[in-house]
């Protein structure tokens, strides 16, 4: 058989070593000029700039970020180390933990074998490649950037908006900085993360599916109205 | 509002995040072709509906999205334990009955002691 050599496990291993990864990865982001002319974020039509000096709530869409879903077994030798090398961030092994750095890279525990990685949009392809380069064995990396968006919720009354919207306990005692969970939100679902707290004012990130974006965007504007809303765009 | 302990998230989470998926520990026959119609029908359609302890399959749908098991009391709605897939329940109708038997035996022993001391009282 002419193709016998390709079935030789040793040959596959060698090929693997030569190319580092046999997974084909494509850059899902179009060239920058095309991107700037044509791309519309899921909340572009709703979150138009609105100034309010006394706003209790500040909303901002963090559009066009790179979202990667990572799956794998953290008990597999080298898995956690490989992720840390690729991202420069430790793989969270504790439930509902969010690790993030100043370079705009974050990794959040979603399940014992699943994590959400968010990176600056223009770096998504490079991070995806780095993960494939470092990881081996059974794992999965999927770029889901086109399917979701991030809303930043901050301001003195940010927590009140959350309390109106979700049954999840968002008291700082139960929901400290560095915690992130999927949550029921206005009867829809999203991922809620407590990103920072400066001078007692918290910033939360809401990771929203594109198909829920219009509904949740309108809900957030309505729920924030009584506190005064500032929209950064 | 009820809190349910997810054995995969390792913490109590909101009831709304979970969905019940029916009776737990149902095993698909290894050789469906070798089943009688009665056996196959039993596997597909027939479920227990006990008054008391019930082992149920649940999913943490808005969360880790893992299936797990709950031992629940169908009269009081009390959740007695949650445990991972592949594990066996620690609490069953049998262990609960044995526990109740031991409790009533201890209670009757205690009441007979009270009677004896009661005689000495004025
Ligand atoms: Zn869970």
UniProtKB/TrEMBL annotation, chain B:
Region listing for Disordered, in residue ranges: 103-122
MF annotations from Gene Ontology: sarcosine oxidase activity
Pfam families, alphabetized: SoxD
InterPro entries attached to this UniProt entry: SoxD, SoxD_sf
Biological processes per GO annotation: tetrahydrofolate metabolic process
Residues in coiled coil: none
Domain of life of the source: Bacteria
NCBIfam families: soxD
Protein name per Swiss-Prot or TrEMBL: Sarcosine oxidase subunit delta
Organism: Cobetia crustatorum
Origin organism lineage: Bacteria, Pseudomonadati, Pseudomonadota, Gammaproteobacteria, Oceanospirillales
